[in-house]
Each structure stands twice: as structure tokens, then as C-alpha cells.
């Protein structure tokens, strides 16, 4: 249509997600989102929604993108739960090492910002954290852990995963992050021994 600027919704959402990921919800202004997406404020509102709506869409995009990778990593949990857990953490370590992406994790960063988030965004953030724990729990249960042990390890592994994101933002080296993962993977290996 003549006179109307066209844009790619996926590209705009990805750019907004990176902006929120880089500086957080509270420190991202509509002007920042406009610069990141190339859209003016009215186009952001009409096409992507208000800041809360856009942030929720970005959280969903992030959770879906990395959730698929975590699911694939955990797919061998029934036959080799230790390898599955290691592969799960490898997804995070690869994301952290990618120079094209901001440090850390959008969900971890959002969880730390819960006091300044709107109630709906805070609830959505908590829900995203819960998905990761439930994903881990199901995989660990398939890997021969009891219900209680699967839950305990899932909570622990989810916490370690989020701490990797925080530690990477704080400047931890790849070797330090790998050592953190090693402790958890070794603990699971010991728990599975007959």
C-alpha cells in the first residue's frame, strides 16, 4: 500500500526483546524501543501494544525460543539423565557465549525486577520460571528419580541455570560457569548411582 511503511513483525519483536534483555524492563523507554525496532511510538502501540503488552510478547518469544532448545536437550533424559542435564546447561552456556546476544537471561533479569513490574508482567515472569522447573522435573522423573528427588533436583537445576545468567552478567569466566554446572551434574550422577 502506497505511503504506508511496512515492517516485519518478527524482526521488530526480536529487536524489542534484545532491548529489554540488554537493559531490563524498567530502564527501557518507548524511545529506546522506537530506536531498536525502527518504529515510531504510534506504530509500536498500534502494532505491538503498550509497553507491558510488548514486554509480555518478548518474554513469550524468549521462552519459546529457548524452551524448544531446552526440550531438545532434555529429550534423552529417560535413557541418560546426566547427559540430558549437561545438554540442558549447554543451551544456557552457548547462549551466554554468543557475542550477538546480551549477557544473562531475559527471564532471570525480569525475575530480579519483579518489584518494579506490573502485577501481570510479574505473574508472567514467575510463570516462565515455573515452566523451566516443570520441564526439568518431568525430564528428571523420566530419568528414574523419585517424585521428591526429581522436584528437588529440578528446583536446584533451575536455580543454577538462572544463577549462570546472573554470574555471566557479573563477569564470571566461561571456566567458572562450567565449574558451577559440573557441581550440579556430578550431584545428579551421584544420586543416580545404585
UniProtKB/TrEMBL annotation:
Gene3D superfamilies reported in the protein's UniProt record: Homeodomain-like, Tetracycline Repressor, domain 2
Highest taxon above the source species: Bacteria
PROSITE patterns hit by this protein: HTH_TETR_2
HTH tetR-type domain mapped to chain residues: 6-66
Alphabetic keyword roster: DNA-binding, Transcription, Transcription regulation
Residue ranges the UniProt entry marks as DNA-binding: 29-48
Pfam families given in the database record: TetR_C_13, TetR_N
Protein name: HTH-type transcriptional repressor ComR
Organism: Streptomyces rimosus subsp. rimosus
Top-level taxonomy: Bacteria, Bacillati, Actinomycetota, Actinomycetes, Kitasatosporales
Gene from which this protein is expressed: comR6
Amino acid at each position: 500500500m502506497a505511503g504506508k511503511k511496512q515492517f516485519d513483525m518478527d524482526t521488530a519483536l526480536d529487536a524489542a526483546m534484545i532491548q529489554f534483555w540488554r537493559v531490563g524492563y524498567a530502564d527501557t523507554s518507548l524511545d529506546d524501543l522506537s530506536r531498536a525496532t525502527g518504529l515510531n511510538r504510534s506504530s509500536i502501540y498500534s502494532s505491538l501494544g503498550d509497553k507491558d503488552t510488548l514486554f509480555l510478547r518478548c518474554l513469550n518469544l524468549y521462552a519459546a525460543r529457548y524452551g524448544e532448545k531446552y526440550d531438545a536437550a532434555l529429550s534423552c533424559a529417560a535413557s541418560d539423565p546426566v547427559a540430558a542435564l549437561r545438554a540442558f546447561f549447554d543451551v544456557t552456556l552457548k547462549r551466554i557465549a554468543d557475542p550477538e546476544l546480551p549477557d544473562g537471561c531475559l527471564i532471570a533479569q525480569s525475575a530480579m525486577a519483579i518489584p518494579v513490574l506490573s502485577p501481570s508482567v510479574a505473574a508472567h515472569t514467575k510463570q516462565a520460571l515455573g515452566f523451566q522447573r516443570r520441564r526439568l522435573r518431568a525430564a528428571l522423573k523420566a530419568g528414574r528419580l523419585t517424585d521428591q528427588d526429581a522436584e528437588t533436583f529440578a528446583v536446584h537445576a533451575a536455580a543454577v541455570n538462572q544463577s549462570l545468567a546472573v554470574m555471566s552478567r557479573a563477569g564470571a569466566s566461561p571456566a567458572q560457569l562450567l565449574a558451577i554446572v559440573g557441581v550440579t551434574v556430578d550431584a545428579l550422577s551421584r544420586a543416580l548411582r545404585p
